[in-house]
Amino acid sequence: MSTPVTEEPESESEPETDEQPAADAETAAAEPTAQQRRMAKKRDDAARRDAQRRAEEETREAENTVHLKVFRYDPEVEGKQEPRFDDFRVPFHKGMTVLDALIYARDHYDSSLTFRHSCRQAVCGSDAMFVNGRQRLCCKTQLADLDEPVRIEPLPHQDVVKDLVVDMEHFYDQMEAVEPFFDPDDLPSDDLAEQRQSRENREYIKMATRCIWCGACMSSCNIAAGDNEYLGPAAINMAYRFIMDEREGESRGQERLEIVEQEHGVWRCQTQFSCTEVCPKDIPLTEHIQELKREAVKNNLKFW
Amino acid sequence: MTIHNHDVIVVGGGGAGLRAAIAAREEGADVAIVTKLHPVRSHTGAAEGGINAALREGDDWEMHAYDTMKGSDYLADAPAVETLCQDSPHETIQLEHWGMPFSREDDGTVSQRPFGGLSFPRTTYAGAETGHHLLHTMYQQVVKRGIEVYDEWYVTELAVTDHENPGDRICHGVVAYDIATGELAGFAAEDGVILATGGPGQVYDHTTNAVANTGDGAAMAYRAGVPLEDMEFIQFHPTTLPSTGVLISEGVRGEGGILYNDDGERFMYERGYANNAGELASRDVVSRAELTEVNEDRGIQDEYVHLDMRHLGEERIVDRLENILHLAEDFEGVDALEEPMPVKPGQHYAMGGIETDENGQTCIDGLYAAGENACVSVHGANRLGGNALPELIVFGARAGRHAAGRSRPDRSTRATRRSPMGAGKRSSGPRRPSRPRWRPNAAGSTG
Ligand SMILES: Cc1cc2nc3c(=O)[nH]c(=O)nc-3n(C[C@H](O)[C@H](O)[C@H](O)COP(=O)(O)OP(=O)(O)OC[C@H]3O[C@@H](n4cnc5c(N)ncnc54)[C@H](O)[C@@H]3O)c2cc1C
Ligand code: SF4
Ligand code: FES
Asked: Which residues from chain B sit within 8 angstroms of residue A94, using beta carbons?
């Protein structure tokens, strides 16, 4: 497929070297003096460089440590029933994520530190937490982008089970309340023939289908915090994904609209955009909710 | 101890487990999924590339079977390969009928693309998130059917009779504990237990597999006396990010991405690893080349090599490889438009696993396995990209149907299994004593 390319890469970036070059050795005043003096000076320089290097290493080490403040709570262990924050100092390396830091702290300092995680690549949706005051996926958040100390808390507005683990049942219930499954009127009779879907329509629902059920949006939403029955952005987005899918029939769409239009549905949303801001999959949640409001209005007008 | 009673217990809620549960339910069984992660958290969600299925004119299942056999170094089992390739089109379209948002052609049909080792572009995909969509689509069908899911329950042991000879043993269920409380419970399975716990990647220091992929199912089956097959065949992927093991797809090299060592040499050519294919040589060749470079002190930071795509130009990169930019940025802190990406080989896939036949049945009555923890032996020494996802749905469905014990009567061992004494007739050894010869034109040998 490809032929060997002869051109050089534009600029092969230098690997970062740890040692600072000793640039000061030969540049000092070049007095024509005796061998001894030169030797003495060399020793002095060497000592100075040594000290300098040590100091640098120390600061680098200090700089290369990240300070975490981690929420702790364990209802089953006496002395841990009161929520508190533990401090951890974790060695830093380029590319390190908040999840890496938590794993390090657990493996090196406190094996009881508990948090959900699995894929380490923003697809399983397990590790949404409240990091420096914002809902984020820990595995997708670079420590280098955060101010210190890095404060890590469980998702707000959810019951804490232990440390950073929250009860997701309510979130799952809301997701399942919108009948989150494809339900076409009829299917091709040939079981090797697919339903047709236009590229445009697939593109239209694409973002909505990216949800990984992390719960960040729900946790960020003021309305959901105040109204436990509010379906919440993720569930409404799930409904949107099916309502807008041209492969489902009109009447199913009606039924779906009725679900999201109910008292604790789309009309609760006050377009604060907090969900859209925190969604790690960049799903335009608020827009989707607004669009469903318009659909609902259109739909109701039809029946007048 | 609480005992939960069901007809079929599926251990694991990834692609294989979900497909098995749906199939068992469609046979009328009361089925429950017991899984240490909520199903949508399973690592099937990480698959990007696609599902191989011979759907189009000019392609057919025999070509798919031929490619698979060749890719396997001729070490796969022919009947199993035939089954995979024959069933895959139906199972793939089944996903579409369940609403999976596949990428589409202008005429509205599902899109397919070329993949390494395929003689026809038959990799059916949904953007760069095929696994995510496959997993979520099937979980939706599980919800639709009201299938019971015990999530965050960790299965530790199979409940198997203690007959001396493993072939005489019967599996009656599993033991698991609730991760939140530590409470132990039994899960009794009237008809069968299906293991679908995924790969063992975490055995390796550096892997593309999730933290949860600890090979539990294979370990449990082994302890219960089931042979593990082909365990030496592990696939390494040549381009994974050093800090996390996140996979950088072959697509980067397909578009023209170049691998360099610390001396700035394009080592695939300059060091003669693959003078024709270069960076596009097969996964094992490129992985070995990288490791050799590192071992011979030409690696960067003594650990990795560089994958450079900057020469492709920003426009092309953003157009074709945008998700790679995000991966490098989010997981390695590297701007791949400005610097080369560090990459190294990582464990990726286990070809081997629990020995099963084409219906997922192991040598223990009532015990089945499907998905990456099983070895029906369709991958031999090397799995082709895009052949694992069809394995999940094809053999997941077959295991589910058969475990439910209500499938085609000639296959059902239900009657014998129900009487503990009657089940002692089978031999314990592998049921396929020698690997059958490959017969590309042997039609219908497995139905
Ligand atoms: C990054 C990546 C990309 C890939 N891309 C492709 C691709 O493009 N095409 C392709 O065909 N293949 C691809 N593969 C391979 C394919 O995705 C996997 O082989 C497949 O998804 C495995 O599915 P599974 O159902 O067997 O296991 P998983 O999806 O890993 O699910 C395992 C399940 O078992 C559960 N479990 C595990 N242990 C226990 C226990 N002790 N008790 C209870 N439950 C347990 C887990 O909770 C989980 O639900 C890729 C793999 C990776 C890692
Ligand atoms: S919509 Fe976004 S924030 Fe909400 S659960 Fe889905 S992925 Fe997470
Ligand atoms: S660990 Fe899976 S999303 Fe972060």
From this structure: 333
From the candidates B237, B298, B306, B402, which is the catalytic residue?
B237
Closest residue in B to A137 (Cα–Cα): B330
Q: What pTM was estimated for this model as a whole? A: 0.87
Residue B355 backbone zone (phi > 0: left; psi -120 to 50: alpha; other: beta): beta
- pLDDT at res. B424: 33
From A58's Cα to the closest Cα of chain B, the distance in A is 21
Contact call for residues B354 and B215 (beta carbons, < 8 A): no
List, in order of start, the domains of chain A with CATH numbers.
38-166 (3.10.20.30), 169-186+197-300 (1.10.1060.10)
Q: Which ligand is nearest to the CA of A280?
A: 2
Q: A27: exposed, middle or buried (C-beta count within 10 Å: 0-12, 13-18, 19+)?
A: exposed
Q: How many CB atoms lie within 10 A of CB A31?
A: 9
How confident is the model over A56-113, as pLDDT tens digits? 555 555 568 999 999 999 988 888 889 999 999 999 988 899 999 999 999 999 999 9
Least confident of A166-170, B274-278, B296-300, B415-419: B415-419
Q: Which fold has domain B235-346?
A: Flavocytochrome C3; Chain A, domain 1 (3.90.700)
Q: Are B99 and B137 contacting, i.e. CB atoms less than 8 angstroms apart?
A: yes
Instruction: At B400, list the tokens.
Output: 């589910």
DSSP state of A142: B
Inter-residue contact B238 to B345 (CB < 8 Å): yes
CATH architecture of B2-233+351-414: 3-Layer(bba) Sandwich (3.50)
β B367-369/B184-195 pair status:
parallel
User: What would the DSSP string read from start to end of A25-43?
Assistant: TTTS------HHHHHHHHH
Q: Which of B93, B192, B198, B95 is nearest to B400 (CA)?
A: B192
> Of A210 and B436, which is predicted with more confidence?
A210
DSSP B211: T
In angstroms, the CA A217 to CA B175 distance is 36
Q: What is the pLDDT of residue A113?
A: 97
Pocket of ligand 2, candidates A241, A281, A286, A289: which has the most ligand atoms within 8 Å of its Cβ, to mutate? A281
Domain boundaries, chain B: 2-233+351-414, 235-346
Instruction: Supply φ then ψ for residue B249, to 5 degrees.
Output: -70, 160
Active-site residue flag, B237:
yes
Task: Express each pLDDT in A246-297 by its tens digit.
Answer: 999 999 999 999 999 998 999 999 999 999 999 999 999 999 999 999 999 9
Rounded CA separation B411/B357 (Å): 12
Q: Are B174 and B11 in contact (CB under 8 A)?
A: yes
Is B206 one of the annotated active-site residues of the chain?
A: no
The pLDDT value recorded for residue B421 is 33
Going from the Cα of B93 to the center of ligand 3, the distance in angstroms, rounded, reads 29
Provide the angle, in degrees to the nearest 10, between the axes of the packed helices B130-144 and B388-403. 20
